[in-house]
Predict the structure of ImmA/IrrE family metallo-endopeptidase.
Amino acid sequence: MSRDIGERVRLLRVASGRSQTALSESLGLKGNTIVSKVETGRMPVDRELAASFASALDCSVEFLMRPYEPGLATKPWLRAYADASAKVVEQVLGDNLLAHEFMSWSRMQWVPDILPLFDGDPNDEDAIESFADHVRSIADIPEGDVVRNAVRATERLGCIVLPLDSELGRHLGLSQRVNGRPFIRLSRAWNTDHSHHVPGDRQRFTVSHELGHLALHAEVPPPMTPEEAKRLEKQAHRFAAAFLAPAGPLLEDWASLGGRVTLSVLQQLKARWGVAIKMLVVRFRQLGVIDEDHSRSLYRQISARGWNTAEPVEVSNETPIWLDKALEKAFPRVTRDQTLSAAAEHYGVAAFHLARWTLWEVPPEVPTIIPRADTQAREPHPEVNAGKLIQMRPRGQRQQGGIW
């Protein structure tokens, strides 16, 4: 029993981003010896002590005393997060374990995991391109069509997409499997203090990149060297590019615009495909349309126009819907806040723990200002309006598992 309580204390503490010292201070203790002994099961915990921990951790005594079965979690490709705080990485991984247990405890109806696993040579770029097409078809994306909503396509494949409270160094996402379930953490449109906006094209590429890791590297351990990390990142990049902008249709659109790779053309392609202009430069380099000198020239032009920090053409941010719908079905109430409160009470924790997994929206007082395209686009596709990519459900696409 003491070991179960200790495991739960540590899980909730880590998922909340608190240190042993901070928890000890909340308990009115000097030093972290008692917290350490409780977490490792070396100190018996009676109900009175459990109540003190429950109060400090914003949970019920019953939650702490519940038998604990640790989830089997794969390690993310941590070398890629070498510039991130180890504490933040640990918090995200712990929060994934907590979220998985909550979802299992609440007996939510999981979306079937239908994400295929790559069994080819990950160094074969053509094989990755073909595999990305295969994944698109399984995600119910019409052949050659734009991915209207990359996050929801990822959910249709069975991935649990949860928000990331803060960036992992330069990275905007993280992926792993918990008891076999694929989890992706994705940065919100705005960071916690609203000082930095993540454009929709970055979000779309990030979630597709993490999808690539889950599909391509299921049997690959975390990289041990910078060279290994670079190789895995390049493979996930290639998958994301092919998933969002398949070669054939992209080249057809490019040819219809005159067959030249200019900033004007790239803006129009961005409005069509919902990917960054800089990503399109990489994509055309991958496909052999431009050479290294041409790509360097484009990067210089992009930098000169200030587009490294804010590209023209606004791409809508995306949010998942599975967890909200599952919560509404499992805990039907009048309002969303009431649903969260009922679910939290059922699980035995304060509602703010669950809010970490559902809070995506931008507060209304925070402006979403992004420069628009400064050139005249070609005849817009149905999903393009005044330079902004509007996420729409494709006509005729069927609903799958309650998620579009």
Summary: Confidence is low (pLDDT under 50) at residues 366-404. The first strand starts at residue 160 and ends at 164.
